[in-house]
Amino acid sequence: MKTKFTKSILLSLFIVFSIFTISGCSDDRPTINIYNWGDYIDPEVLDIFEEEYNVKVVYDTFATNEDLYVKIKQGGSSYDVIFPSDYMIERMIKENLIQKIDINKIQNIENVDERFMNLDYDPDNQYSVPYMWGTVGIIYNKNLVNRPLTKWADLWDEEFKGEIIMLNSQRDTLAVALKKLHYSMNTRNIDELEEAKNELIKQRPLVYAYQGDEIKDSIISEEAAIGVVWSGDAVAMMRENPNLVYVLPEEGTNLWFDAMVIPKDAKNVELAHEFINFMLRPDIAAKNAEYIGYSSPLPKAIELLSDELKNNKVAYPDFSELENTEIFKDPSDMLQEYDRIWTEIFSSM
Amino acid sequence: MKLNKHGYFYLVWMAIFIAIPLLMVVYFAFTTGDSQSISSFSFSLENFKRFFTPMYLEVLNKSIQLALISTIICLLLGYPVAYIISKEKIQYRNVLILLFVIPMWMNFLLRTYAWLTLLGKNGIINFFITRLGFKPLDLLYNDLAVLLGMVYNFLPFMVLPIFSVLTKMDNSLIEASWDLGANKFKTFMKVTFPLSLPGVISGITMVFIPAVSTFVISSLLGGNKTYLIGNLIEQQFRYTGDWHFGSAMSIILMVFILISMALTSKFDKGKEGDGGGLW
Q: Which of B35, B56, B225 is facing A209, going by the closest CB pair?
């Protein structure tokens, strides 16, 4: 009986492990695992990379920086290239989750505009290579809203009850409330955060929904008139619905950068470098920028864009307009507070 | 206990996919620490202490209320449906129950998404309402929409167990009741309904459990405006990364479900009916 028992255990373990291994090696080309934001690349670009380098691309997507962080932190899923934003890169460097990039292997780095290099989140660009950048602003439908919106405070106007869509993201939505109050979005002052919380509780009855990527569909199909969106999404939405207008609120807003980094436990570091270098090729970067609508940090790529997008002030604003912006900093030690505040907003009746 | 070969396989299967994950949830719930290194965890009741504050209890309370209401609606809608179908001729009966089950073969998420296009401001229902000259209604992103989503998605779980009990019921008992002078209503109240209780009980549990723990329905149809306990757990695992607190909340929810199951089966005392379950 005992041998039978061990046998059946071995058998079941064998089955379990063979499932893992079979699913892993059906293709003998080298594999690169990429983890990117949803809707954030031209899928053709991946095909081109597969073909040119004779590799297999496994592509997954996430919805928020926090999603990405939890996945990387827990380990077990070894991605070769990931696309975190500024403050998340800062945090991942601090927590030793990503590795240094060998800049000699990324010749195309010279294509990147100086303005996007050596930013505070990664002072010497040792860990990250810029991918896209943008702002956060208000998008509204000029046919459904009777006056031009200019500031965050407009999102608290009773008149727009049931027309406002906010982001379902702790940091971004708290930042809106903080900016409305003219505080820094990186504040560590609990009183200021509490004030922002009360603003959001006050705003909640006016809000139609808190959404992620679905916000695009809701605004395009005129389900709601006003939304808080990232600039690149605004570009894509305005293509679909010409009645939409994007504004950078007076109180100032968030300027952000998404970059490519290589996690510590990447399996194919060599290929990861090649992929990053490939993504910085002007033709490829232009293809992505054209497809997703976000702003490329590569002047050579911008030249290749369609005139319509190239001259789009939403995607490529004058830099003078961006003076009143703030870049997110890593809030690691404040996370518990953020979480508490967020839960309090949504559990208040 | 003697088990054959398949029995052992099943045992290993359960250990790997049910017992071990469950133990891990318990382990996480009673510890705190940096989630990267399991060895550095320390025992703590902090997570439970944190939950028993008005803020979280309010969320739990709301989840239970919504789940209870949706269970009651499912019962009120589901019982007559199951009863009517079970009284049909056998060939119709199978077709009808099949029609009832077919929508379940479609993905749950897809079916919930479909409601977005029905209930939206410019959705199909409001299209007809405005055509008829009325003002459009706010149908989406409120508690009613969440309730509707729960009832719609979980109704088959109420109908099927009741249906299966009703069809297996011994018809001669009902005939006897008639022979003894009871009218249709009295027969139903004194014979049919009591005998179908096992199906009702398992229907209630099978609707209540997914309804109290859902996070997808409240997120899609509630527009993330009201958090249910499921949303809180999701938030801890996906955004905040505090698996300890998330696990503690899962345990509390589990305990709560166990208690409510114990309570419902109390009503069912002594009537260990056969064929009450779905499977």
A: B225
User: Comparing A68-72, A136-140, B249-253, which segment has the lowest mean pLDDT?
Assistant: A68-72
Q: Is B99 on the interface with A (CB under 8 A)?
A: no
Say yes or no: A174 and A197 in one domain: yes
Q: Choose among B9, B224, B235: nearest Cβ to A209.
A: B224
Please check whether residue B278 lies inside any domain of the structure: no
Residue B119, domain member (yes or no): yes
Quick one: which of A52, A50, A20 has its CA closest to A32? Answer: A50
Query: Residues B58, B189: one domain?
Result: yes
Domain shared by A229 and A335, yes or no: yes
* Contact (CB<8Å) B237/A70: yes
Which of A64, A162, A204 lies at the smallest CB-CB distance from B239?
Answer: A64
Give dist(CA A202, CA A206) in Å, integer.
Answer: 8
Range of the domain at B114: 54-266
CB within 8 Å: A342 and B55: no
Cα dihedral sign for B116, B118, B124, B128? negative
Please check whether residues B67 and B17 belong to one and the same domain. no
ipTM greater than 0.90 = no
Is residue B37 in some structural domain? yes
Model confidence pLDDT, tens digit, residues A292-318? 999 999 999 999 999 989 889 899 998
- Do the Cβ atoms of A73 and B58 come within 8 Å? no
Residues B167 and B206 in one domain: yes
Per the structure, the count of domains in chain B is 2
Could you tell me where the DSSP H helices lie in chain A?
Answer: 2-24, 43-53, 65-74, 86-94, 170-180, 190-203, 214-220, 231-240, 269-279, 282-292, 299-303, 307-310, 335-347
A349 touching B, CB under 8 A? yes
Which of helix, strand or coil describes residue A209?
strand
A204 touches chain B (CB under 8 A): yes
* B223 interfaces chain A, CB cutoff of 8 Å: yes
Residue B79 and residue B171 share a domain? yes
